[in-house]
Design goal:
Largest sheet: 6 strands, mixed
Number of helices: 11
Order of helices and strands: EHHHEEHEEHHEHEEEEEHEHEHH
Oligomer: single chain
Radius of gyration: 33 Å
Distance between the termini: 56 Å
Shape: elongated
Mean pLDDT: 84
Strand content: 15-25%
Length: about 350
């Protein structure tokens, strides 16, 4: 396994073929001037120590040195070993509402993007907890299973949108049931927390019952409400520009409002509800909650420990540059005796 830390320096490798072309042009130019000056065989006899092979060797060493130095700047990192690490934490699942009402822009930039920003910042302040992600609207869908790879989690998080689930509406009970039945193994004694993020526009009537059943299984729940009580329309965009707004059957523009009441009811018998429009309050609230939940030791995913290898390439590159300085263009005596390139006079 390997990774390249500074990939931008790879563009410097384009210099290598340019130097090759320049070298070939210079050799052609020299040959042309020599022909203009006189007979090539006579010129070679006037400079018997000049080697045909040495200039090629010197440019080859120089190009290899530059290539090594560039690779050193890129800083390739090699995986030295794969190991299973032990961590201490809890299992956290983020359930994110991806219904169309989350496109409302009563919070900047919109409710869904605000939710994703909150989750990303919450992940940043986690230590060694395992995390998973659920997307839900009219139904719930597991986006990412429980993992300790936060970078992968953020990648999946950024790809979430309102078109990933075809059934519209918001069914909070679907997200709670999925978290309770799919993500958490009853045999696993690790404490489990569901962080439910939504505008609270629930189109089912079973969210409280689902929350009660989930808590019986040991699932703790935090609810986070995004959006304003005043609400706003749902923009329909084309090429990033608002084309129109969502309308109901009567042709009236739909105004979607945050329903904090249902989210408060879900969280009141567990770990509580927090207003998601204030990022600092959310981070502090979740941090305090996590501090009061007992951590459990578990085995994390296998991880590769990468170590920088730039020093080998830089060292080899500087060695070749030094070697190039001592390579002269005249013939080497013992090679001349072997006559490898038929350079002796016949």
């Amino acid at each position: 396994m390997y990774e390249l830390e500074e990939k931008g320096y790879l563009y410097l490798l384009f210099v290598i073929p340019l130097l090759v072309l320049l070298f070939l042009y210079v050799q052609y130019w020299k040959r042309k001037k020599q022909r203009a000056f006189g007979d090539l065989n006579l010129i070679q006899k006037l400079s018997p120590e000049k080697s045909v092979f040495k200039p090629i060797l010197k440019i080859s060493v120089l190009l290899l040195a530059l290539t090594s130095l560039i690779i050193g700047l890129v800083n390739p990192k090699m995986g030295t070993k794969i190991e299973t690490v032990k961590r201490e934490g809890i299992d956290i699942v983020f359930a994110i509402d991806v219904s169309k009402s989350m496109l409302a822009e009563d919070v900047a930039p919109n409710r869904l993007e605000k939710s994703k920003q909150l989750v990303s910042q919450l992940i940043n302040q986690l230590g060694s907890d395992r995390i998973g992600i659920i997307a839900y609207s009219g139904s719930a869908f597991p986006v990412l299973p429980i993992t300790t790879d936060y970078s992968v989690a953020k990648m999946f998080l950024q790809g979430m949108n309102t078109t990933m689930i075809s059934s519209q509406g918001t069914s909070l009970d679907e997200a709670i049931n999925l978290a309770a039945t799919t993500f958490f193994d009853k045999k696993d004694k690790t404490n489990k927390l569901l962080i439910l993020i939504s505008d609270g526009e629930d189109h089912s009537e079973n969210a409280e019952d689902a929350a009660s059943e989930a808590q019986k299984l040991g699932l703790k729940i935090i609810t986070i409400g995004v959006g304003s009580e005043k609400g706003g329309p749902i923009p329909l965009k084309r090429n990033g520009i608002v084309d129109s707004f969502q309308r109901d059957k009567n042709g009236e523009v739909v105004i979607t409002k945050r329903n904090a009441e249902i989210l408060t009811k879900i969280g009141k018998n567990s770990k509580g509800y927090v207003d998601g429009n204030n990022t600092k309050n959310v981070l502090d609230f979740v941090k305090n909650t996590l501090d009061n939940i007992q951590k459990t030791e578990f085995e994390g995913m296998q991880t590769a420990n990468f170590q920088s290898q730039f020093q080998w390439f830089l060292g080899f590159g500087f060695f070749l540059l030094l070697l190039d300085v001592f390579l002269l263009e005249r013939k080497t005596k013992w090679v001349q005796k072997m006559n490898l390139f038929n350079e002796k006079d016949e």
